[in-house]
Specification:
With 244 residues, the chain is of the alpha/beta class. It contains nine helices and five strands.
Length: 244
Amino acid sequence: MTKLITIILTAILFSGCQPNETSEEISENDTTHTELDTMNSTVQPLKFLALGDSYTIGESVLESERWPVQLTSKLGANGIEIEKPTIIAKTGWTTDELQSAIDKENPVKNYDLVSLLIGVNNQYRGYNIEQYESEFKQLLLQAVEFAGNNNDRIFVVSIPDYSVTPFAQNRDTAQISKEIDQYNAIAKEIANAQNIRFFNITPISRKAKNDSELIAGDGLHPSAKMYAEWVDLIALDVKNMLNH
């Protein structure tokens, strides 16, 4: 009889423990999922700073059609969320004018991605090319600072060749093209010396000679279609840069 009572009591004790153990397991799992959800919800979009002139601010195209905005959208569609880009750029700016604007804006130094495209107005105004070399180098060093001194998060975009546009047809187009190449060679050399990615979009810009849809309505600046081709060229490499 005593043995029977012992068996019954043992069965009751074990059956009483099982609901509590199950409850604890569910509670632990719920806590784990909650913590993961909280971690996922705190992931912040990346920050992108684009420095330049009319080609970066997107003269004569919609804001959504600017290449930095198109790039942000394309990366977002591929799983890399980036805030609306911060753009320090204005039509007509030379390297020294961009420098003055940067000094005034005083950007923070925690951007995840920084781009630089500048120089066409130096060429257009006939500035000394040595001035461009010196000022471009300084601008690129600042770009590195804005990216937290991470060269892997900086990229340079070449100057497009406006000699093929209607705007330039009464000018010395061969000389313009030659000088654009000289400016781009300097920018590429400086970027390479700093192990910074250089994207050569100039061949794309020259396609406008035979495709008017690549030129905006003002007869000078790139259209949204051309900017989209720039983005197609650079997006994958930029994605890899950000995943590095």
